[in-house]
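Long-time lurker, first post. I've been practising inverse folding by hand and with some scripts of my own, and I keep getting stuck on stretches where the C-alpha cells seem ambiguous. Below is the full C-alpha cell string for one chain I'm working on. Before anyone asks, I'm not after the true native sequence, just a reasonable design that respects the backbone. If someone could post their per-position residues I'd love to compare against what I wrote down in my notebook.
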C-alpha cells in the first residue's frame, strides 16, 4: 500500500482526511514545514498532501519544494482559490490541486479513484519487475490476499514448490499491507539449528542459557508493527508450533529466562514447499497451527504450469543483466516446455550463466543437455505406444536398451547430417540436441567405424 504524509495545521481536518486516506496505506501527519522535513527525512513517501496556509504563513509552498527535492509527488489541499497562488504551486511541482470542502464532502468521488490508481500502478510494477508473471489468475489471487491482509490483518499461508518465489510474494504482501518501511522479518527455518530456533524467535535474557552473554531482542519482537514470515514451517518443531499459536493469538510472550511479558503485534505469513496433508499425517505440521495460520491460503503454481511466464522472465533477467543476449524462437519454445525442477530460481541461474559468458544468442546448440532432455512433450508429440514396435522390443531383448539408444542416435545423426549437406550446426538444431550431445554421438560413430574397419 501507499506511504502517505499529510501536512495540515488544522488538527481536526488533518485527522479527518487521514482517516479517509488510511485505507490506502500508512498515513503520517505533520502541521508545519519543520514537521514535513522531519517526516521526509525519516521515510520515503509515495505521496504527500499539503495545505498551503500553515499557521497563517504560506509555508505550504516551501513544503512543495522539499517534497519535489525528494521526488515525493505533492498534492495541494487548500481553501484558497487564488489563481496566482495555485499557479505558483504548479510551477513548484504540485501534481494536483483539490479544494478542502470538495474532498471532505465527496472523498469517494474526488480522491478515492486517484489513490486507487496509484496503488494499482504500484502493484502492476511489481508484476513486471519483481515477481514477473502474466498469469491473470495468480495476479488476481495475490492482489486479493494483499487487500484482505490490509483490511482485516488476515494470516497468510503460502504453498508452492522450491524456487517459485514464495519469499518475493511474502515481501510483496508486506509492502502493500503494512508499508515498506515497517520491519519485514524473514526466518528461513531450515537454515537454523533446532536448539537455536526458540532463542532467536523469542529472545532471551543474559544468562538464560549457556552462551547467553547479553540480552537479545527476539525476531518476534523485532517484527512488531511489521511482518513475521516463517519460511518452510515444516522445519519448525511441533512443540514450537504450539508456542507460536499462543504468541500470534495473544500478541504477547515471555523471552527465555524472563518473567516479563513482551508485546508484539505483527502480520503473520508462513510457507511450505511440501504437501500439507502429508505434513499433517506425518505429524510434522500441527493441524491447529495450520488452521490458525491460514486465514487465507495462497497457492503459487510451479513454472511448468505457467508457460506464459517463461518468455517475460527470460526477457526480465536478460534486461537486468545489461547484456544484448538474443534468444532463438526454437530455444524459447523448448524453455517453455522444460520441466523447471527448481522453477524460477533455475531459469534465473540459466539465463545468468549465458549472460556471464561471451555467447551472443541462446540457441538449441548451446542449451544444456539436461534442459533438452527434460522437456514436457507438447500437444503435437507422438505417443510412445505408437512408435514402440515389436522389432524394438526384440532388439532390446537381444542387445539391451543402451545399445538401442546408441543405435538410434547414430542412425538419426547420420541421416540428418547428410540431409543438411553435412552442415554440423544445422544438424544439431534439427535434432534438438546440444553441442555436447553431438560430440558424443560423433565419437560413437568414429568408434563404430573403427570397429567395422578392424573386422574387415
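-- Answer (accepted) --
I ran through it position by position. Result:
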Amino acid at each position: 500500500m501507499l506511504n502517505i504524509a499529510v501536512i495540515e495545521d488544522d488538527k481536526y481536518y488533518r485527522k479527518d482526511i487521514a482517516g479517509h486516506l488510511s485505507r490506502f496505506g500508512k498515513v503520517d501527519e505533520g502541521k508545519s514545514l519543520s514537521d514535513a522535513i522531519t517526516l521526509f527525512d525519516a521515510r520515503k513517501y509515495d505521496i504527500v498532501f499539503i495545505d498551503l496556509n500553515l499557521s497563517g504563513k504560506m509555508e505550504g509552498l516551501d513544503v512543495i519544494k522539499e517534497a519535489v527535492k525528494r521526488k515525493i509527488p505533492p498534492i495541494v489541499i487548500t481553501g484558497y482559490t487564488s489563481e496566482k497562488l495555485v499557479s505558483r504551486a504548479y510551477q513548484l511541482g504540485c501534481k494536483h490541486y483539490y479544494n478542502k470542502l470538495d474532498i471532505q464532502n465527496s472523498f469517494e468521488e474526488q480522491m478515492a479513484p486517484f489513490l486507487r490508481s496509484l496503488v494499482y500502478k504500484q502493484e502492476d510494477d511489481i508484476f513486471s519487475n519483481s515477481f514477473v508473471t502474466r498469469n491473470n489468475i495468480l495476479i488476481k489471487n495475490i492482489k486479493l490476499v494483499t487487500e484482505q491482509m490490509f483490511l482485516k490483518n488476515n494470516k497468510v499461508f503460502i504453498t508452492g514448490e522450491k524456487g517459485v518465489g514464495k519469499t518475493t510474494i511474502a515481501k510483496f504482501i508486506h509492502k502493500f499491507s503494512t508499508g515498506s518501511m515497517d520491519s519485514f522479518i524473514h526466518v528461513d527455518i531450515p537454515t537454523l539449528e533446532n536448539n537455536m530456533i526458540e532463542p532467536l524467535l523469542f529472545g532471551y535474557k543474559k544468562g538464560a542459557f549457556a552462551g547467553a552473554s547479553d540480552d537479545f531482542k527476539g525476531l518476534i519482537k523485532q517484527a512488531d508493527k511489521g511482518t513475521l514470515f516463517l519460511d518452510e514451517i515444516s522445519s519448525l518443531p511441533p512443540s514450537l508450533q504450539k508456542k507460536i499459536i499462543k504468541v500470534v493469538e495473544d500478541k504477547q510472550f515471555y523471552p527465555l529466562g524472563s518473567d516479563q511479558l513482551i508485546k508484539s503485534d505483527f502480520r503473520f505469513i508462513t510457507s511450505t514447499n511440501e504437501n500439507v496433508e502429508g505434513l499433517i499425517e506425518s505429524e510434522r505440521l500441527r493441524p491447529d497451527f495450520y488452521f490458525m495460520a491460514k486465514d487465507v491460503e495462497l497457492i503459487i503454481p510451479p513454472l511448468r504450469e505457467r508457460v506464459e511466464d517463461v518468455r517475460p522472465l527470460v526477457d526480465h533477467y536478460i534486461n537486468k543483466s545489461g547484456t544484448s543476449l538474443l534468444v532463438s524462437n526454437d530455444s524459447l519454445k523448448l524453455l517453455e516446455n522444460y520441466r523447471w525442477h527448481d522453477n524460477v530460481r533455475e531459469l534465473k541461474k540459466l539465463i545468468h550463466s549465458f549472460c556471464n559468458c561471451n555467447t551472443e544468442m541462446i540457441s538449441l546448440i548451446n542449451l544444456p543437455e539436461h534442459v533438452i532432455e527434460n522437456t514436457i512433450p507438447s500437444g503435437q508429440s507422438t505417443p510412445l505406444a505408437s512408435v514402440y514396435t515389436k522389432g524394438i522390443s526384440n532388439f532390446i531383448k537381444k542387445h539391451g536398451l543402451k545399445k538401442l539408444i546408441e543405435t538410434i542416435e547414430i542412425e538419426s545423426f547420420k541421416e540428418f547430417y547428410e540431409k543438411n549437406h553435412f552442415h554440423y550446426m544445422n544438424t544439431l538444431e534439427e535434432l534438438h540436441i546440444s553441442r555436447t550431445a553431438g560430440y558424443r554421438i560423433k565419437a560413437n560413430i568414429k568408434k563404430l567405424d573403427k570397429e567395422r574397419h578392424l573386422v574387415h
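A couple of notes from the structure itself: The first strand starts at residue 2 and ends at 7. The first helix runs from residue 11 to 21. Happy to go over any region you disagree with.
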